Amino acid sequence: MVDVGNVTTIAIVDDDESVRTAMKGLIESLGYIVVAFASGAEFLASDRLSECACLVSDVRMPGMGGLELQKRLMASGRSIPMIFITAFPDTRVRDRAMKAGAIAFLSKPCERDDLLAHLRTAVASRSSGGN
């Protein structure tokens, strides 16, 4: 299930609580339902995976980073469009994420309008059955 009524659920995975809080507030202000997680393992263990239309994930996190999370989701057959955010932009990491199907790879702090555009792309790709 992607939509709850006409509201779409977006997941945020970031180990930095202040980033999670700010991102959650921003995305909720755009009209989405937001569920936030402190780690990739916490997200994977949640019962919310099936309702997420998009996942916004940090790249660098203790334990499981964003690319590993993407890899595990793909290996389990879950196709959730992903937007990566990072304070440490790296072309090679960006290329790996995008090659594996990411919708976007943004630098922190990301611009509101950029994030909104990519969220819309992700949600539209999920609704149409794409990645």
Say how many strands there are: 6
> Helix count?
5
- Helical content stands at 40-55%
Structural class: alpha/beta
Oligomer: single chain
- The CATH homologous superfamily is called Response regulator
Q: SSE string, helix = H, strand = E?
A: EEHEHEHEHEH
Q: Indicate the CATH topology.
A: Rossmann fold
Itemize the secondary structure elements and their pairings.
Elements: E1 3-4, E2 7-13, H1 17-29, E3 33-37, H2 40-45, E4 52-58, H3 66-75, E5 82-86, H4 91-99, E6 104-107, H5 112-127
Parallel strand pairs: 2-3, 2-4, 4-5, 5-6
Antiparallel strand pairs: 1-2
Description of the structure:
By secondary structure, this protein is α/β, with parallel strands linked by helices. The chain has a single domain, classed as Rossmann fold, CATH 3.40.50.2300. The protein is 41% helix and 23% strand. It has helices at 17-29, 40-45, 66-75, 91-99, 112-127; strands at 3-4, 7-13, 33-37, 52-58, 82-86, 104-107. Strands 1, 2, 3, 4, 5 and 6 form a six-stranded mixed sheet that branches. Helix 3 (66-75) links the parallel strand 4 and strand 5 (82-86).
Provide a brief overview of the structure.
The protein has 131 residues and is of the alpha/beta class.
Features of the shown structure:
alpha/beta, Rossmann fold, 6-stranded mixed β-sheet, 6 strands, globular
